[in-house]
Amino acid sequence: MPSAVGRLAPSPTGAQHVGNARTYLVAWLSARARGGTVRLRVEDIDVWRNKPGAAEQLADDLRWLGLDWDGPVVQQSRRLAEHTAALDRLKRLELVYPCTCSRADIQHAASAPHLEHEGPTYPGTCAGRSAADADSLAVPFAWRFRVTDSPPFTDRFVGETHIDLTQAQGDFVVWRAVDVPAYQLAVVVDDAAAGVTEVIRGDDLLTSTPRQLLLYRALGLAPPEHAHVPLVVGEDGRRLAKRHGDTRLSAVRAAGVPAERLVGLLGWSCGWLDRPEPITATELVPRFDLTRIPPAPFVLTRGLLKGIGFIP
């Protein structure tokens, strides 16, 4: 069988934290355990939210964790020509239409749509337009993909999954009015160009998969396998964020915590170790087993952070 090609796709819109590290570790181990390669892509098309120095910081964080990659780092923002070509194909096929709905409705389309950011189902206000109607519009517009069905898929972690997009979100944005691709289109085009065969990410992005499968089909591209793993949450059960204190990887490093301690904690959280103990990412490769990851979110407590020496 061909070797797996996995990818790490961080965004430079903020600092990487312990929750990000767990997902990256799972993705990296999955590819390495299959004797495969790992690509690194910086998803920086949401230029208005990018933080200065964040791209360099995230690369340093990954190296500190012991997660390497193969080939050059790809900056998504430099692939506009490829994204544009994909949009043009969708236009020719009449699979997209110009949408003049308010910016408030489409402003988050460039970023990965985590569950808490998913808006209501699009009512199809502009769906009666054809691609050619864009030439006569005097106001800014985005491009929406026409959703006519929702392909079921087998998730390597979740199992058989079907999300009815006609009832959940509906027609979705693939190109924003500010003339940049939206997350869904850019990810599909870039993963296909990199030969990615497996995408492992947090389960808050599960609803993105059927949308991306529609785009793979429309563009005549082979889709990768998908696996959506549980997130790291705070003691309140909510997705890890600033409200839970400083869990940035840069802060863990600055506190002098060896990477092996954090990797060991994360490996234990995934069921690969009997207890949190220092270990390198490479040493975890033979222990990798996606099925051992508990199905519930991993609760990061102050006691666990204290155990690795991050907080006194």
Structure notes:
- With 312 residues, this protein is an alpha/beta fold.
- It contains 10 helices and 12 strands.
- It folds into 2 domains: 151 residues, Rossmann fold; 111 residues, 3-Layer(aba) Sandwich (Rossmann fold).
- A 3-stranded parallel β-sheet has the order 1-2-3, with helices on one face. It has a 3-stranded antiparallel β-sheet with strand order 4-5-8. A two-stranded antiparallel sheet has the order 6-7.
- Helix 6 links the parallel strand 9 and strand 10.
- It is elongated.
The CATH first-level class of the largest domain comes to Alpha Beta
State the end-to-end distance.
Answer: 49 Å
Task: Name the beta content range.
Answer: 5-15%
What value does the Rg take, in angstroms?
20 Å
SSE sequence, one letter per element: EHEHEHEHEEEEHEHEEHHHEH
| Helix residue percentage | 25-40%
How does the helix and strand content classify structurally?
Answer: alpha/beta
Question: Can you give keywords for this protein?
Answer:
2 domains, Rossmann fold, 12 strands, 312 residues, alpha/beta, 3-stranded parallel beta sheet
Briefly summarize what is shown.
The protein is of the alpha/beta class and 312 residues long. Helices cover 30% and strands 14% of the residues.
Topology:
Layout (H helix, E strand, L loop, with lengths): L4 E4 L9 H16 L3 E6 L11 H12 L8 E2 L4 H13 L3 E4 L3 H4 L35 E4 L7 E3 L3 E3 L10 E4 L7 H11 L4 E5 L5 H12 L5 E5 L2 E2 L15 H6 L4 H11 L11 H4 L13 E2 L2 H6 L5
Parallel strand pairs: 1-2, 2-3, 9-10, 11-12
Antiparallel strand pairs: 4-5, 5-8, 6-7
Helix pairs in contact: 1-8, 3-5, 5-6
